[in-house]
Amino acid sequence: MNKIPKTVSRRLGLYHRCLKNLTSSGKRNVSSKELAEKLGIKSSQVRKDLSYFGAFGKRGVGYDTNYLLEMVERILGVNKSWSVVIIGAGNLGHALANYDVLEKNGFYIVGIFDNDPEKIGQKIGNLTIKDIKEFREFVKKNNVEIAVIAVPATSAQEVADIIVESGIKGIINFSPMTINVPKGIIIEEIDISIPFKNLTFKLTGNEFRSA
Amino acid sequence: MNKIPKTVSRRLGLYHRCLKNLTSSGKRNVSSKELAEKLGIKSSQVRKDLSYFGAFGKRGVGYDTNYLLEMVERILGVNKSWSVVIIGAGNLGHALANYDVLEKNGFYIVGIFDNDPEKIGQKIGNLTIKDIKEFREFVKKNNVEIAVIAVPATSAQEVADIIVESGIKGIINFSPMTINVPKGIIIEEIDISIPFKNLTFKLTGNEFRSA
C-alpha cells in the first residue's frame, strides 16, 4: 500500500463516518458518485482517494462498503479500542462522557477527573468522578492512551503538564487555549467556536469571500 | 483586497483564536515567526496569508495585533454578534449553552429547545428550555440567524427540517448524521469523534502514515 498523502488522510474521518452510516443501514455497495455527494467532493477525487486504500470499485456495482470500512478503520487505528480519560467534569466533560458516538468508534471513556471537592465522588453514568490527585496512578494501572482536556482555558496548561507527566502520548484539547507540550506528544485541538466562525464566514458572503 | 483562497480561509479561525489570546494578554505586536509557531505552519506561509488581509508587518516590530484581529474579525463576520438557538437540551446542549467561548466570539445563545416535557420549563443559566413547538414563532420574533442541532442522530433530519422551515439559513450540526437541506442553507458539521480519529491515526504511526 502506498503512503497516504495528508490531503487524503484529512478526509479519512469523513469516509469513516459515511461508511459507518452506509453499512449500518445495510447498504452493501456504494458508488464513487454516491460517496462524492455525501462528502461534497468530486467522484474522480473519491476514486483517487480510495485507490490509496487499495480499494477498486467495479463498474456498475461500485465498492463493497464493508471491505472499504474495514480498510479505513485499519488505517485510522480505530479497529482497536482506546482507553480515554477526561479531565474536567463540567458540562463539556459530562457531554463527552455520555457521547455514545465515541464508544461506537472504539474510544472508551474509562475515567473522569476533577479537582472540585463537590464534584469528586459524583457519578456520570457508570463512572465516578475521581480526584485529579489520583490521575497518575490511574493512568498507569489502566493503560490509558488518550486524555481529553475539558477544563477552562486558565487551567488548560496546568492540566496538560499533569497529562504529559503521566506518560500519556495523545491529547485532545477542548479548551480555547493553545497549550505547549514536549516533542513526541500529539495534540488535537478543538475549538467549538471555529465551526461557528466558518459558518458566519459563509453566511456573510461579503467581498472577502473566496470563489 | 484580494479574494482569499480557501486554504487561507480555513486558517482564519486559527488566526482569530491566536490573535484574541495575544491581544487579551496585552501583546501589541507579534512576529510572523511567533504566529507560525502557534499555528504549526511556516512563517513564510503566515506572511503570505496575512498579505491577503492587507496586513504587512514591519521588520523588527512585526504585526500590530489589534489591527490584525480587527481585520480577521471583519473577514470572518464575527465583528457583529449573532443570535443562536440550540435544539436539544441534553448534556451537549447544556455544555454549549454554558460555553462562554461562543459568547466571547459574538455568538449569543438566545434560546434552547427540546421536545421532552420533563426538560421543557427547566433553566440553563438565564435560559428557559422551550417547547420545540414554539420554535418557528421564536425564530421570527428574535431574528435568529443560526441553529445548532444537538439531538441524537435519529432525530437530526427531523430537526433540520424544522430549522429550514423556520427560515434560518445557517446550521451547526453536532449530530453524527449527515443531514440533507435545500440549496442556500449552509451547514457546518461537527463530529466529535473525528479529532479522536485524527489523533489515533497519528498515534498508531503505522505503515499507512504519510510523511
Intertermini distance of chain A: 35 Å
Overall average residue pLDDT of chain A: 88
What would CATH call the class of the largest domain in chain A?
A: Alpha Beta
Number of domains of chain A: 2
Beta-strand percent range of chain A: 15-25%
Under CATH, the topology of the largest domain in chain A can be stated as Rossmann fold
Examine the secondary-structure arrangement and name the CATH architecture of the largest domain in chain A: 3-Layer(aba) Sandwich
> What is the tally of helical segments of chain A?
9
**Oligomeric state of the chains in view:** homodimer
Radius of gyration of chain A: 20 Å
Greatest chain-chain contact: A-B, 71 and 70 residues
Describe this structure in words.
2 copies of one chain form a homodimer. Chain A is an alpha/beta fold and 211 residues long. Chain A folds into 2 domains: 6-75, Arc Repressor Mutant, subunit A (Orthogonal Bundle), CATH 1.10.10.10; 82-194, NAD(P)-binding Rossmann-like Domain (Rossmann fold). Helix content of chain A is 45%, strand content 18%. Chain A is built from 9 helices and 9 strands. Chain A has helices at 6-24, 32-39, 43-52, 65-76, 91-97, 100-104, 135-142, 153-166, 193-204, and strands at 29-30, 63-64, 82-87, 107-114, 123-124, 127-131, 146-149, 170-173, 186-189. In chain A, strands 5-6-4-3-7-8-9 form a 7-stranded mixed sheet, with helices on both faces. Chain A has a two-stranded antiparallel ribbon with strand order 1-2. Chains A and B meet through α1, α4, α5, α6 and β8 of A and α1, α4, α5, α6 and β8 of B.
